[in-house]
Amino acid sequence: MQSLVIVAHGSHLNPDSSTPTYDHADTIREADAFGEVRTGFWKEEPHLREVLRTVEGEEVYVVPLFISEGYFTEQVIPRELRLEGWDVDRWDSDGLSADQATLTATDTGQTVHYCGPVGTHEAMTDVLIRRAETVTDDPDVGDGFGLAVVGHGTERNENSAKAIEYHADRIRETDRFDEVTALYMDEDPEVDDVTDHFTATDVVVVPLFIADGFHTQEDIPEDMDLTDDYRTGYDVPATVDGHRIWYAGAVGTEPLLADVVLERAADAGADVGAAIERVRRTTAVAAGNR
């Protein structure tokens, strides 16, 4: 039996942090791609250190629900899963190309196919576009619109910005939107100045974050002047400096992300059959796209 484990950060402070992980696990479970689907977290239960012990299968595909390669995907997760012989060089990655490494979990003996994060997979580009469709309620959105892909950005991890730029470039190459720009919270160009980067009147803003939390629900809306106080809420779209800002919230809450998890596992050798197409059809209907 092949098993899937989706691993994520989780939070002791934000009870909604784990919601997307559970939702995507449920979607994949219903698609019957794996004998079992489990979830594990760094800051919640079941903990990463224990999650493989909840899995019955001897062959396990582990997919990190993280945006970029870095400390968690390269150090924390392999360490907590006790993956024997792990070395980041097994991925031979440039910060975007981590795919999979097959190792053994020392305490359970299971064969673990450890995958790269969902955030750097090419299929995430489709999720960002779907997010724009969902927030505008328009499956053909693009003409006359600008799109901003927003990331955290940090000097501590150069890979943090690579994923943002990668997907912004891919969307730009489709020529679907009039303008596509990568913006950041902690480095230039900053999301605070979103209207300075677009001539289009309508701008969709999609944060490349897994879950809605402090940054996506409080910081970004206030930084963009959608509201003076996030607790009072804001309109979608909201008018700022003559532009209509369609703020989508975290991309990780988009149901189509379940497809990226399946794609990661399939790239690592999992036999997912027609599950990917089933997930795409199911999530398209959920988004109002037929």
What are the salient characteristics of this protein?
alpha/beta; 11 strands; Rossmann fold; 290 residues; 30% helix; 20% strand; globular
Topology:
Blueprint: E1 2-8, H1 19-30, E2 36-41, H2 48-51, E3 59-64, H3 71-81, E4 83-84, E5 100-105, E6 111-115, H4 124-136, E7 145-151, H5 159-173, E8 179-184, E9 202-207, H6 214-223, E10 238-240, E11 243-247, H7 257-267, H8 275-286
Parallel strand pairs: 1-2, 1-3, 3-6, 7-8, 7-9, 9-11
Antiparallel strand pairs: 4-5, 5-6, 10-11
Helix pairs in contact: 1-7, 4-5, 7-8
Protein name: Sirohydrochlorin cobaltochelatase
Organism: Halopenitus malekzadehii
Keywords: Cobalamin biosynthesis, Cobalt, Lyase, Metal-binding
Could you characterize what this model shows?
Keywords: Cobalamin biosynthesis, Cobalt, Lyase, Metal-binding. This is Sirohydrochlorin cobaltochelatase. The protein folds into two domains: 2-120 and 254-286, 3-Layer(aba) Sandwich (Rossmann fold), CATH 3.40.50.1400; 124-252, Rossmann fold, CATH 3.40.50. It is 30% helix and 20% strand. It contains eight helices and eleven strands. The strands form two sheets. A six-stranded mixed β-sheet has the order 2-1-3-6-5-4. Helix 1 (19-30) links the parallel strand 1 (2-8) and strand 2 (36-41). Helix 1 (19-30) packs across helix 7 and helix 4 packs across helix 5 (159-173). The longest helix has 15 residues, at 159-173. The chain is globular, with a radius of gyration of 19 Å.
